[in-house]
Structure prediction request, 262 residues.
Amino acid sequence: MDIKEAIRQRRSVRSFTGESISETTRKDLRDFLSGLYNPFGGHFTIRLKEFDLKNGYRPATYGMIKGASDFFVIAMADDEMTSLAVGFCFEQVVLKSWQLGLGTCWIAATFRESDFNSGELWPENEKLRIVCPVGYAAKKSVVEKITRLTLGSRSRLPFEELFFDEGFGKPLARDNRFSGSLEMMRLAPSSKNSQPWRALVCGDIVHFYYLPKGQLSVLDCGIGICHFYESEKSEGRCGQFFKDNTVAARHNQWVYLVSFRN
Ligand SMILES: Cc1cc2nc3c(=O)[nH]c(=O)nc-3n(C[C@H](O)[C@H](O)[C@H](O)COP(=O)(O)O)c2cc1C
Prediction:
């Protein structure tokens, strides 16, 4: 499955079969973790952890996750570049997992930290903030169905409300050179499906802005930017990210984050 198909198909999975992932798959995922592309720096650590369900131990996710024995656990520092990098890097893992036939679900709120943190030592200034089950999807539980309905997980904001051309008054045309990759950004997952990303295209540059809706807005934006970048890469276009000091730091409530040139 190519990356754009993975982006189109992916959904959060909260109900799993209980079958553990194989040692080979676990190794593939660990190898993938060690080769993540990170243009943003920051300080974070991602590990893959296995829980023995047969022992009856269930790390608490407040009923949200069923039947998962393997979890990614992510510790991170508390700064903007780290949040951007975690979103950008870990979404690569989410998409890779989907390509391997595995479901995942970013979890930032509905988990008991102490259950996932036992025995873990993290680098200084990093704290466990995200967990993510990974495994084979089972039929959706009633809780999962209700959660998806409540969050409106299937819907996304219209393209015209998110992406602009030369100025924030003019929506981006569908035939713009960046539209295909921005459409991939539009489909990205975000906490509570908040979709706090906006982009302004100026010639061969895309400026990314975020709407500070909560603590996870920059991280969410990193996830969307990952989809954008993966799509550009799949078209053989490998541009560069940079901070552009000449653009407005804010537009209304939107805050400038980073730019991409190709
Ligand atoms: C950073 C982040 C944090 C999330 N935290 C939770 C969570 O704590 N509990 C949960 O059930 N879902 C969580 N989600 C999943 C979102 O609700 C889900 O991605 C969104 O509703 C869109 O649905 P989709 O992933 O199926 O496209 C999180 C997603 C992201 C990106």
Notes: The helical segments are 3-9, 23-34, 80-99, 113-117, 142-151, 179-186, 217-234. The pocket of flavin mononucleotide is lined by residues 11-12, 64, 105-110, 147, 151, 153, 189-193, 216, 219-220, 223 (CB under 6 Å). The first helix runs from residue 3 to 9.
